[in-house]
Amino acid sequence: MSRQCPLCRHSAAQPYHRDNFRTYYQCSNCALVFVPPEYHLPLEEERAYYDLHENSLQDEGYQRFLSRCATPLLNELRPHSEGLDFGCGPAPLLARMLAEAGHRVELYDSYYVPNTGAMKRDYDFIVATEVVEHLSAPGEELQRLWQRLRPGGVLALMTKLVISPERFANWHYIRDPTHISFFSVPTFRWLAETLQAELEFADSDVIFLHRSGVHPE
User: Fold this and answer.
1) Which of 13, 42, 184, 189 is at 20 to 30 A from 197, Cα to Cα?
2) Which residues contact residue 68 at a Cβ distance below 8 angstroms, ignoring those fewer than 6 apart?
3) 32 belongs to a structural domain
């Protein structure tokens, strides 16, 4: 049985893996591995699962984790850039780290900071750390974020990458029931080509998509 890909909308995704809880499909066009909708948690159960997370603004380990995105991003930003932390969660530590470096950062999270006004502005950078794997419609969401980037801007994503079917079968990442979209290097290459973006892997799970054009003064 084939499925429609939630990233590129190709209609011939095929079974990739099955465990005791879910079936996973892979798109033959963009290589996204995804969980079909019948396995998605209801919204109230998804929110309850997120509420179990114990990240905090004072967590040094969490700060070290986020620094793998923050450090290379800060090296590329112009002074006093304006950005968006998309899917910031209840403890927007990355936004604080970037703000302490002199940048202005708006927050948006559909559960914790439903600031719809933030999604109507344009930005020099957008960060989404440990977010895309939760998206049921990643194609729509990433296009929406891309449209909010100014020329010369950067979309900074952080997510673990699919390596192989063998690694996937024993991967801790798929044990999280809220993880439903799994990206890989080929998927990001497809996405960069589709968005006409310059692709940069800043770390093993940190991906920058640079928008072409001259940064406005």
Assistant:
1) 13
2) 158, 202, 203, 205, 206
3) no
User: Which residue, 85, 163, 80, 78, is CA-closest to 131?
Assistant: 85
In single-letter form, the type of residue at position 171 comes to: W
Q: At what angle do helices 93-100 and 60-74 cross, to 10 degrees?
A: 50
Query: Which CATH number do you get for residue 62?
Result: 3.40.50.150
Give CA–CA dist 2/23, Å, rounded.
12
Count other Cβ atoms within 10 Å, centred on residue 204. Answer: 9
Place of tokens 């194609």: 139
Residues in the chain: 217
Q: What is the pLDDT of residues 64-93, one digit of tens each?
A: 999 999 999 999 999 999 999 999 999 899
Q: Into how many domains does the chain fold?
A: 1
Given pLDDT bands bounded at 50, 70 and 90, which one contains residue 108?
very high
Which phi and psi (to 5°) does residue 171 adopt?
A: -85, 130
For residue 88, is it within any domain? yes
